[in-house]
Amino acid sequence: MPGTEVRRIKRDARARRFANRLKSPSKTIFLPMKFLRILPVFLALALGFTGCVALDRHDQSLLEQHHVPGALIDRMMRGERLELPDIVVLSKRQLPDPFILDYLRSTYAVYQLASSDVLDLTRAGVGKVVIDYLLATPSMYGPPRYPYGYYPGFYGPYPYYNYPPPLIIGNPHFHHHW
Q1: Which of 12, 68, 105, 108 has CB 3.0 to 4.6 Å from 63, enough for a Cys bridge?
Q2: pTM of the prediction?
Q3: Angle at 107 between CA 104 and CA 110, to 5 degrees
Q4: Cis geometry, peptide bond prior to residue 159 (ω within 30 degrees of 0)
Q5: Are 74 and 52 a contacting pair, CB within 8 Å?
Q6: What count of other Cβ atoms lies within 10 Å of the Cβ of residue 69?
Q7: What are the backbone angles phi and psi of residue 162, rounded to the nearest 5°?
Q8: By C-alpha distance, which of 141, 74, 128 is closest to 101?
Q9: CB-based contacts of 63, cutoff 8 Å, min separation 6
Q10: CA-to-CA distance for 112 and 145, rounded, in angstroms?
Q11: pLDDT, tens digit, for every residue of 8-43?
Q12: What are phi and psi of 156, to 5 degrees?
């Protein structure tokens, strides 16, 4: 039975090493697999929400000082597009035009204004600089406009080079009469 005694001694030594490893803190960190599966999701959420706030605390306090409605402040904090009545509210609350312009630029929103909209904004007291910006957004952020009949995506049939003239087989003097 000397073989079984040797196995028992080795087994006991292995058990002592394992017990000592559990007692002493290890330098390596072992994470459970569930945590490792969830970690990329948390990282994506953390990186995704870092740029969500369109206004900092100073801008938010400026809006509160000018008594802007809370619903509009919340929409601006989320970086949402402002509608024309929202822009009128900001102008009537005496917010400076550069502040309004900075926010509008941060949203990259395109505004299609009719002449009646421009008149309404002017009568409501919206600054000329803001109205000019709103009129310029289609050319700045909208799709490009091309003259009639021209579109840069059309190159003709494949392959993209000129074909040679057609090869006529038969009598060149024979004319078809349809």
Answers
A1: 68
A2: 0.54
A3: 80
A4: yes
A5: no
A6: 12
A7: -70, 135
A8: 128
A9: 55, 72, 73, 76, 95
A10: 14
A11: 777 777 777 766 665 555 555 555 666 666 666 665
A12: 95, -175
